[in-house]
Amino acid sequence: MTGLGALLLLLTAVLGGNARFDLPLPWSLADARLSLLADPLSRWFLAIIALIGLPVVLFSSGYLHHLRSRVSLGLVWSGLALLLASMAGVVLAANALTFLVAWELMALSSYALVASDNHQRSIRQAAFTYLGATRIGTTALMAGFLWAHQLTGSWTFADWHLQGPSALGPGLLILAGLAVKAGCWPFHLWLPIAHPAAPAPVSAIMSGVMIKTAIYAMARFFIVGGHLSAPALGPTILILGAISAPWGVLFALLQHDLKRLLAYHSVENIGIILMGLGVSLLGVQWHSPLLAQLGLAAALFHTLNHAVFKSLLFLSTGAVDAQTHLRDIERLGGLIKRMPWTAGAFIVGSAAICALPPLNGFASEWLLYQGFFGLAAGGPDVASRLGGLLLMGWLGLVGALAIACFAKAVGIVFLGLPRSTEAEQAHEVTPAMVAAQAFLGLLCLALGLAVPTLLGPLGRIAAPLGPSGPLQAAWTLPVGLLALVLVLTLSALAGWMLLLARRHPARTFITWECGFGPLGPRTQYTATSFAQPISRLFGAIYNYAVEISRAGRQRRHFPDSVAVETVHEAYLETRLYAPLLRALRHASGVFLMRLQAGSIHQYLIYMALLLMLLLWVGCR
Amino acid sequence: MTALLFQLLSLLVIPLLLVGVIRKFKALMQNRVGASLLQPFFDIAKLLRKSETISVSASWVFRLAPVLGLAVALVVAVLVPWAGPLLPLSLAPATNFLLVLYLLSLGKFIAMLAAMDTGSAFGGLGASREATISMLVEPTLVVGFAALGLGAHSTDLLTIYGAPASGIVAGLVAAAFVLSALAELSRMPVDDPTTHLELTMVHEAMILENSGRNLALTELAVALRTCVFLGLAAQTALQVWPAHAALPLTTRYALGLLALFIVGVAVAIAEGILVKLKWRKVPNLLAFATVLSLLAALMAAAQV
């Protein structure tokens, strides 16, 4: 049923035209009604929801089988259906009331999904953290909406035309609320906590699609139509993105839990998308339509691409999890021989997220590079031109770090020798689960090659910013031709190799072990050691330290035991959020507990006081 | 079309000859006679005739990596103007420097995976160090090319090297490229291509399990990448002399080859007199390259 719903959504998005739908409410609530609007921007996001929803639903039926003793299947299926429907509601909403209703439904249904496997205390805690994050985000968002309503007197988004300093207050509040949902720095805290707790298909939807509704809302409020335009917003978004991207990938490099690693990569990719939005806003500000369109197209295209490859990676992780019940990568290994399809899909997804051509990640990052180059070539002063050049290098650094991180993930999880019996006894997952991964893997390739086709709808979305011709012309790469040449060269070389192999067949032998006897799984390189050189270089960012202790009489050369411990600290969590939470708990323990002491007399006084206050406000 | 054929034909000879020249000069620096200039050709021919040994723990990734690596290097070497902008301008969009860098990254990514595929600790060690080095080099290359491209208002290498550039930007970028190329190509003082002491190797550790034709493809890809990187460094250095852009194409090509071999000899001399850096000191060396390309970016931004 959920799959069918997703399919219908896809058809609506692709075939349906622009439409407006108003449902007057039977009661009056500050002059608001349920109102939906489908325009090119919301149809782009509807397509993303449906495109990811389909394979995830296909995958879930097989995946949930191994969770059936711990999880109520009815809860997960209805939660998934509600989540998909409410996301569609968010991107279709035409006024603040409809938006908030759908936004809250989305938050609550995803909370229920994160908490679905609630037998472990850690999962209950993770779900609670996630719930807290959604509350903070919604509070900021509501405050921003109320402020905007106060200034414009309307709930309909189309009526919000605020320019200059007056837009800054509501704009920043709305941005903060959306940033919590998107998981951008410094609000990324909930992502690495909630994702490992949720079942894999739920993580795929949440990381692939749900956090993107915040990107939709940013594009809607700040860029397309430019309803809220304050000069400070562009640089703010650009800087937030520029911090998020390396921050996410640097922390991902240290993770040993595969799902937590992927969650940190969502922070990275949200950063990349936000940089695109920032470029677009700067383009609007500098009256350069091409720059504004390039930034927006890069951001929206990367949103789609990230949805595809991140959900693919989460599904493959789910397949590994379903087979081995392990997510600690130090205990996996050698899965490529046992789960060839899953391994192939994960490698394709990794190459796509590392922006390697000819896959889709490269196409959108290339557009973003062109946006940065546009900043450098068209900037009004030396500082902004230099900024554009440095941002290009910055994105190059992020890309190289992502390659390191995914070489580690693929190498440790899928290649080499299995590091545990669970990994040794794994088998390929069911055909339906493989099909879901294969679909997304092929989509990675197709989206990478079909850029000119996709620039059509992207140009229509960016139409309010200027004519779409220059955007189409900005894509100059002959990717299809190059991919063809690459494939031809590849097959020619492979054919030559096969020809040579006929004369001198290859023989198989053990891996070279320096003559010390057979290699075991324990002699392989580990994820910790793979990441060590880079972690040490960036050690100042996360207080990275390696402590080695040896014990025994001849400790230097023949120790009885060696213990190695690596420590790192997530600054924001320990230095900023932990004291804040402590202060909050202290305040609630000392102050709020007195207010809510369980005495009915006290509560009656509160009610009477509130009634009097309302009467006074109403009569004034 | 003739230019394309010319580029293809020179690809058959120049890269391996360059490797031979570097080895010869290194030998001369060490008071040895050294092998013939054609020795790399003989080596490849020998490796292609031998059978190969593959680890039992290896999968299809190990088989794919050398083939994909060489295919990528070939495509890049055909497109990149390493001996001067010979190709017709209609091919310019395909020579986008971001495309070239990311294509080379594709080859590196699959090579890192192949190194870890055999379950040998050396492979993991080499892959980890390769990832670190390319993390340090990538921003330098991107910023350097972008700074060069700002003058030409283009990110296509063919256009960038076809247009006159600012001398100071080109000089700074050329210096940054030479330093980066040493790291990227695993040459002294970052990595020693002749060492076989496992714990100090980077590139050699990654290909420890490759043999026979598998190794031949890897060596060919390395030769092509050497040619591309040193050639781009030489072309950038030539940009310092603005008048050279006005020379006829054949003269430019000859000049480009001469500059390529001069850079190669310089690399050989450096290998003769430098000691290999401790692994922990490598970032300090590459920091110089990064600073040089940042300075170039500042100059380029100020001049537009």
Mean pLDDT of chain B: 89
Residue fraction in strands of chain B: under 5%
Strand content of chain A: 5-15%
Helicity of chain B, in percent? over 70%
Radius of gyration of chain A: 26 Å
Uncertain regions spanning at least 5 consecutive residues of chain B: none
* Quaternary organisation: heterodimer
Unreliable segments of 5+ consecutive residues of chain A: none
**SSE class of chain A:** mainly alpha
- Secondary structure tally, helices of chain A: 25
Structure in words:
The complex is a heterodimer of chains A (620) and B (304). Chain A is mostly helical and 620 residues long. Chain A has helices at residues 2-15, 40-63, 73-92, 96-114, 121-152, 165-182, 191-197, 200-210, 212-223, 233-254, 258-285, 289-324, 335-338, 340-353, 360-378, 382-414, 421-424, 431-449, 451-461, 469-474, 479-503, 527-537, 539-542, 571-595, 600-619; strands at 19-23, 34-38, 162-163, 228-229, 507-509, 545-551, 561-567. In chain A, the strands form 3 sheets. Chain A has a two-stranded antiparallel sheet. In chain A, helix 12 packs antiparallel against helix 14. Chain A is globular and about 95 Å long. Chain A starts with a helix and ends with a helix. The relative contact order of chain A is 0.08. The mean pLDDT of chain A is 87. Chain B has 304 residues and is an all-alpha fold. Chain B has 11 helices and 1 strand, in the order H-H-E-H-H-H-H-H-H-H-H-H. Chain B has helices at 2-29, 39-49, 60-79, 97-117, 121-152, 157-162, 167-184, 203-206, 212-238, 249-273, 282-303; one strand spanning 53-55. The longest helix of chain B is centred in the middle third of the chain and has 32 residues, at 121-152. Chains A and B meet through helix 15, helix 16, helix 21, strand 5 and helix 22 of A and strand 1, helix 3, helix 4, helix 5 and helix 9 of B. Strand 5 of chain A pairs parallel with strand 1 of chain B.
Sum up the structure in keywords:
heterodimer; A: mainly alpha; two-stranded parallel ribbon; 7 strands; globular; B: mainly alpha; 11 helices
